[in-house]
TrEMBL record:
It comes from Formicarius rufipectus. GO terms for cellular component: endoplasmic reticulum membrane. Its main location: endoplasmic reticulum. GO terms for molecular function: GTP binding. Belongs to the SRP receptor beta subunit family. Gene3D superfamilies: P-loop containing nucleotide triphosphate hydrolases. It is a single-pass membrane protein. This is Signal recognition particle receptor subunit beta.
Amino acid sequence: EPQLAALRAELGGPALLSVLVAVVAVVVTFLIWRCVQGRRSSRKAVLLLGLCDAGKTLLFARLLSGKYRDTQTSITDSSATYRLSRDKSTNVTLIDLPGHESLRLQFLEKFKAAARAIVFVVDSVAFQREVKDVAEFLYQVLVDGTVLRNAPALLIACNKQDVTMAKSAKLIQQQLEKELNTLRVTRSAAPTTLDSSGGPAQLGKKGKDFDFSQLPMKVEFVECSARGSKGEEGDADLEGLEKWLVKVA
């Protein structure tokens, strides 16, 4: 107490001391904000995830070259710099990850810390029969400690919309929310994924049915077609995806 009184007297009274404390608080807050922004800006990767045959690799090729090319199931990652069409000076690194069940988590582990954003590609035609597998993989992504901590923007790209039997983005969202809620309930007794504190990672809000708005990252859905309505000769329908990439870059 005597030391504090002496300091106040030396600085010109409590008013000046209060001002100095406020200034220090502002500076510390600014430095913390810069640190957080710096870590985010250092994450330049946009990961393309999804099951096998969802169309990730063709989508990857179309974004980079605009051209159709025959693809096959990936067994390793592919990466390239994608320059945004509206701002040639801004770019992100697109990384296409394998969708095979035995490889996908291994490659997610390798690149997740660098992810600025994630594009989770869904086969809109096969969705009804693959919904449980799609939800299983998406669940593993969403409860990952690093993904939860960094909260990269997430886009569910409902691909193959050029096919008549393709499911809409709205239906896909509803079905995924339902399946993810079921997974959360069935796994709550014996969780296998841990968050940064060592406890079980929580998907969504406890006591409420799951929906994507409960996640720490912003989640959007878009309909697209890497093949295009005219097949190999036509242009892809990626306008929604390209606009989203501009927004998250």
